[in-house]
Automatic annotation (TrEMBL):
Native source organism of the sequence: Pseudovibrio exalbescens
Entry similarity comment: Belongs to the ABC transporter superfamily.
SUPFAM superfamilies, per the entry: P-loop containing nucleoside triphosphate hydrolases
Region Disordered, residue ranges: 1-23
Protein name: ABC transporter ATP-binding protein
Length: 259
C-alpha cells in the first residue's frame, strides 16, 4: 500500500481524476483535498480546486494564507510536505511524484525569487533548462516572444533588471514542455512600468492557451488577467468563482484581500 493509499484507507478516495464540470468543460488540472505541512506546522488545509485547459486561475489571499505553499505542493517541492490529497494533470496522477518527475510531466513553477543561475548568460540559463527533455519552445521562438532577452542573450543573467530576470524566469519555464504554468508573485518588487511589460507577456501567455495558476499580491492586476479566482484564508478555500465576481464584490475583497 502506498503512502497516499494508506492515508485514504477507509475513505472513498477517487480512483480517477476528480473533475467538476464548469461551463460544460472538464478540468484539465485538479487539486483535491490537499493537506501540506512545514514540519508540524499545518499550512495547506484541505485545498481543492480545478482549472480548465487554457484557463488562467488567480490564487489569491492575504499574506500567510497558504498561496505559495499550495503552489509548491502542486509542483511537488520538498517543502511543504504533502501528507494527504491528490493532484491530477491531463488525466495523470502527480501527487506521488518527486519535483523533477512533476516537471517532466509538464508542471513548471516560476518561483518568487526567480532562481536565475549566476555566472551564466541569459542564453546559457535557457539552454540549461533544456538539458533534459521533454523540450518546449526553441530558443528562436523564445527570442521572438521575448525580444529583450534576445538583446541580452550573451549578458550575465543576474546583471539584468528585475523585470528582465522575470522575463527570463517565465521564458525558462516555456523552454520546457509546459502543461501547467505556476507563477508565484510575478510582479513582486517591480516598478510600475516593468509591471506593465510583465502583464503584456502574461496576456501573451494567455492568448497562447497555456494553462496557468498565478499567485499575486497585486490582486486587481491578477484578476483582470484571470478567468477564475480561488481565495485562500488560513490555508482553506473561502471562494471559488469567476474573477469578475471578485472584482464586483467589495465585501469579499475587503474581508479576504484588503482591497
Amino acid at each position: 500500500m502506498t503512502l497516499f493509499e494508506d492515508q485514504f484507507a477507509g475513505r472513498h478516495a477517487p480512483s480517477v481524476p476528480p473533475k467538476r464540470s464548469q461551463g460544460g468543460a472538464h478540468a484539465y488540472f485538479s487539486a483535491w483535498n490537499l493537506h501540506a505541512y512545514y514540519g508540524e506546522s499545518y499550512i495547506v488545509q484541505g485545498v481543492s480546486f480545478d482549472v480548465r485547459e487554457g484557463e488562467i486561475l488567480a490564487l489569491l489571499g492575504r499574506n500567510g494564507a497558504g498561496k505559495t505553499s499550495t503552489l509548491r505542493a502542486i509542483a511537488r517541492a520538498g517543502d511543504p510536505q504533502l501528507r494527504r490529497g491528490e493532484i491530477w494533470l491531463d488525466h495523470a496522477p502527480i501527487h506521488e511524484m518527486e519535483s523533477y518527475q512533476a516537471a517532466r510531466s509538464g508542471i513548471q513553477l516560476v518561483p518568487e525569487d526567480r532562481r536565475i543561475i549566476p555566472g551564466l548568460t541569459v542564453e546559457e540559463n535557457l539552454q540549461l533548462a533544456q538539458i533534459a527533455g521533454p523540450h518546449g519552445w526553441s530558443l528562436d521562438r523564445i527570442y521572438d516572444h521575448f525580444p529583450r532577452l534576445a538583446e541580452r542573450a550573451k549578458q550575465d543573467a543576474v546583471t539584468m533588471s528585475g523585470g528582465e530576470q522575470q522575463m527570463l524566469a517565465v521564458a525558462r519555464a516555456l523552454a520546457r514542455d509546459v502543461k501547467l504554468l505556476l507563477l508565484d508573485e510575478p510582479y513582486e518588487g517591480l516598478a510600475p512600468v516593468i509591471v506593465q511589460e510583465i502583464e503584456r507577456i502574461l496576456v501573451n501567455v494567455k492568448e497562447l492557451g497555456i494553462t496557468t495558476v498565478i499567485v499575486e499580491q497585486n490582486a486587481v492586476a491578477a484578476l483582470h488577467l484571470a478567468d477564475r479566482a480561488v481565495i485562500l484564508d488560513m490555508g482553506e478555500v473561502v471562494f471559488d468563482g469567476t474573477a469578475q465576481e471578485v472584482l464586483d464584490n467589495e465585501e469579499l475583497r475587503q474581508n479576504y484581500l484588503a482591497i
